[in-house]
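Obj: model holo form, ligand = magnesium ion.
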Amino acid sequence: MSPIAMPLSPMAEMRAITKRYGGITALDQVDFRIFGREIHALCGDNAAGKSTLIKVLSGAITPEEGEIVFEGKPVRFRGPRDAKDLGIETVYQDLALADNLDVAANLFLGRELTHERTKGIFLDLRRMEDEARNLLARLKIHLPNVRQRVRTMSGGQRQCVAIARSVYFNARLVILDEPTAALGVKETQKVFDLVTEMREQGLTVVMISHNLNHVFDLCDRITVLKTGRLAGSRHISETSKEEVLRMIMTGSSSPDGDGGAGAKPVRLSA
Ligand SMILES: Nc1ncnc2c1ncn2[C@@H]1O[C@H](COP(=O)(O)OP(=O)(O)O)[C@@H](O)[C@H]1O
Ligand SMILES: [Mg+2]
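Output (holo structure tokens):
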């Protein structure tokens, strides 16, 4: 087989993942394949299992069944540390920023840079500020000042700081749980610019989103869950908002709901 005809292998692959909470099956044999350097949207109605799936991928919870393969190797996460060691970083909706601290301090929260002096070990504020400026410049994030407290910043700026923090420590796959849910149009654009820049720089992004306009503007691939089951996964160029909506609502891509994979999308009147 020529190199061009070779099928692209996924960067990360979740196979037949099942996760139960008591009587609730949050995930039922879900397959999820993520390819390198793509922006992959994860969609579905409330309680579809989106957050649970990314928690499994980020090592925060362990599924009852299924396996994860990362760059061709089966991996087992005992906790988020194991996922982080592979470069899988997650930004949850609460962002986990320290409002009273400035941008630089937030970027290094829990992983502060220090220097040793004869009197002891001190925070290396100068170096953290320099590194923060370099990181923001590299990601083309425009903030007035790295010494500004994050409390005083806009929602989009705060989201960008939280994402930048995940990128700093050698992230390769960044998972974002509804990064633009609370943002206006301009602020959303800032986050989109950042996500696009991340892809340019070789990162892979998985993004939970409820906004199909956003998904179709930004993403390369979309996977839809419906009440814990995989409804479908498509390259954005081979689907339509109508088909995706149908998958979200019925769990099936076919108009008559038989789940036929080869069914042609039917245009709803626009
Ligand atoms: N910690 C938990 N304990 C009990 N049930 C949970 C827990 N987390 C999620 N669930 C249930 O699992 C299902 C999927 O939830 P979730 O992954 O949060 O969905 P989504 O993010 O798509 O809204 C829901 O029915 C939810 O109530
Ligand atoms: Mg959720």
